[in-house]
Fold these 2 entries.
Entry 1:
Amino acid sequence: KQEVTQIPAALSVPEGENLVLNCSFTDSAIYNLQWFRQDPGKGLTSLLLIQSSQREQTSGRLNASLDKSSGRSTLYIAASQPGDSATYLCAVRGGTASKLTFGTGTRLQVTL
Amino acid sequence: GAVVSQHPSWVICKSGTSVKIECRSLDFQATTMFWYRQFPKQSLMLMATSNEGSKATYEQGVEKDKFLINHASLTLSTLTVTSAHPEDSSFYICSASGQGIRSGANVLTFGAGSRLTVL
């Protein structure tokens, strides 16, 4: 059974700092890995999707890496802003029609 | 783009009543729907997976007679919480997987969620 863990559970940083969120998964046989953002009481917004054959994906200030063999992914956020404050979830997919298994989430707060 | 419309966004009901949550896919055919539950400060837990026209597959520990899922068309799936109790209070999110009507590309999109409070 796939298990996904995210560290840290919560993080508070001052505006402008670069930061890294970590995600680890127990079964390396994944189809893809996805990072989401969730604002309080809201649904999910997809940030980055990395296929199993890829090593990283970039979108603006966000960069996600994937090391399938070690069961790890990181989300790097450059020059953080207060608007980045949210919960970040990573999720892995085992196959094309397989369900997503979500991580425990990291609650990020970027302070002024 | 592919959008999932989830309704209602929040609902308050009395204990013992039933509540229906709808998810509609816009601009794509949702061949598979996933229903998740999220308790405060916890991650999403998959409740069930349904394919259009078939019975839903429930995750271990989820009561299928309590959480009724209907996926009768490629654009609509419903989750009915029957005889709701306070412990059913949670945030319910649907996710739809399918092909874009115009693009033909595979999509996976989440609804905005429904907050259920049972008094």
Entry 2:
Amino acid sequence: EVQLVESGGGLIQPGGSLRLSCAASGFSVSSSYMSWVRQAPGKGLEWVSIIYSDGSIYYTDSVKGRFTISRDNSQNTLNLQMNSLRAEDTAVYYCTRYCSGGSWCLDYWGQGTLVTVSS
Amino acid sequence: QSALTQPRSVSGSPGQSVIISCTGTYRDVGFYDSVSWYQQHPGKAPKLMVYDVSKRPSGVPDRFSGSKSGNTASLTISGLQAEDEADYYCCSYAGTYTPNVFGTGTTVTVL
């Protein structure tokens, strides 16, 4: 059974850093396309970053230079290192897996972890 | 890349049909047949309901159907049920560098 379980969220001051992790089971993170999607309180979904199976990485413009996506193949985890955090980064962060077979849908989502950036 | 445009809310009585539109541009919805729809209940993670414009994952009721015309995709919920009350988001592929552009979200209310 496929499962994604995020951890690492919490309250952090502006300018601070936080590292989110996503423990995957039932499939291989290294063989999949994986993304982080976030949702600010009361707002819509926003794609944040992707890591392709070949290791290519891309980010939405607002987090470029501040966030780093990575994966640990030995632990089968997906990570998101978030630096220079801003109030506007406050959101629930979801770890997601792309559908297989060439489709660009997101078939599995974690339960989400809340990041609150506030002084 | 701007968010896709959805109506803020739609409503219908049990048994009726509702249609949610999702308007993008020639760079996303209009160019790729990779539109997906997600259902989100309060406090829960989104759930995939339709992918590749009109395909349904296993387990999703056939009351949910998708279509696309030009730059606009649509999700139709037929035979509306109380448990369909939720937020719905469309999403389109927009290229290698920005694989997912989400819609603004629509709240479906069952009267």
